[in-house]
Write a structure and sequence with these properties.
single chain; alpha/beta; 13 strands; D-Maltodextrin-Binding Protein, domain 2; globular; 3 domains
Length: 287
């Protein structure tokens, strides 16, 4: 074989090899696309096929509570049941989880379909979870014992965020508003000692305040407003805000756009309905 033939053979081999590589890349891309397409565009179909919507919720009077073996309570739980009923989904499987970080991990791993929580919409989280349209507006509030004019309680009553400098503030495990407290600490130029209580619920935090085990806690206003109606918490105050009013949403796995669209379309109608206004007033007392 002369030199020209050798060069032509090498070019032929290179051309064939390059073509094989391109074909392999196309096949890999197609498989990846097909898997992604399958994950994203069959999420709602899978729920309909199984006739079950799996929802992870925070255990509190505002979101989800088991009343007895056959019934539940909570504004968010009732909303979700209504969504399922309106879409012909017979079963709603509620999973109660007090730790938001664990709840998000369950959502991202595909163990649940929906995270129904009081979650502020943060841009930093948009790359991790898929938000629904806003469901509520709320803010984070400082919960403390009411001002004691008899001076039997020597703990300072706080009206100004600057007065939180050097104070221990207790929050729920994995709470989103930990970030807000950290930012507030920078804003006031002093430390705020943030304490997370493992496995705590909002009710636990309020009980610890009443029993003088802690002096300050931060909760979502929407949740605290309902709990503070109870007589056992009448000595607690919720008039000092630590954040501005924010939009709150439910969250989904980023790979479930069809389910998200279905929920968003339903919410846009339901949140304006008389049925929603009735249960909203029932739980919040707000007209």
């Amino acid at each position: 074989m002369n030199e020209i033939d050798k060069k032509m053979a090498r070019r032929k081999h290179l051309f064939i090899g390059g073509g094989c590589i391109i074909i392999a890349l196309i096949i890999v891309s197609f498989v990846v696309f097909a898997q992604t397409y399958s994950q994203t565009y069959t999420d709602y179909k899978r729920i309909k096929r199984d006739n079950t919507l799996r929802v992870i919720v925070e255990p509190n009077a505002m979101s989800y509570q088991i009343v007895d073996i056959d019934s539940i309570a909570g504004l968010q739980a009732l909303m979700i049941r209504q969504f399922a009923q309106d879409h012909g989904i017979e079963h709603v499987e509620f999973i109660s989880e007090p730790n938001l970080s664990i709840a998000i991990d369950s959502l991202l791993s595909g163990k649940v379909d929906l995270l129904a929580w009081h979650i502020p919409i943060y841009n930093t989280m948009r790359q991790k979870i898929r938000y629904t349209i806003p469901v509520f507006t709320s803010r984070q509030m400082l919960i403390q014992r009411k001002k004691d004019n008899t001076k039997t309680d020597s703990v300072a009553f706080i009206r100004n965020q600057l007065e939180l400098a050097g104070k221990e503030v207790y929050i729920l495990p994995g709470a989103f508003y930990k970030q807000r407290l950290e930012n507030l600490s920078k804003e006031i130029g002093d430390s705020i000692i943030i304490k997370e209580i493992p496995n705590a619920t909002p009710t636990h935090l309020l009980q610890m305040l009443v029993e003088h085990h802690i002096d300050y806690a931060v909760l979502d206003e929407f949740v605290a407003r309902v709990l503070l109606k109870q007589a056992i918490f009448k000595q607690l105050d919720m008039t000092t805000a630590i954040s501005f009013t924010q939009n709150y949403s439910w969250a989904l796995n980023p790979n479930t756009p069809v389910l998200c669209d279905s929920i968003n379309q339903w919410l846009s109608v339901y949140l304006e309905s008389k049925a929603y206004n009735n249960i909203y007033r029932q739980y919040t007392g707000v007209k």
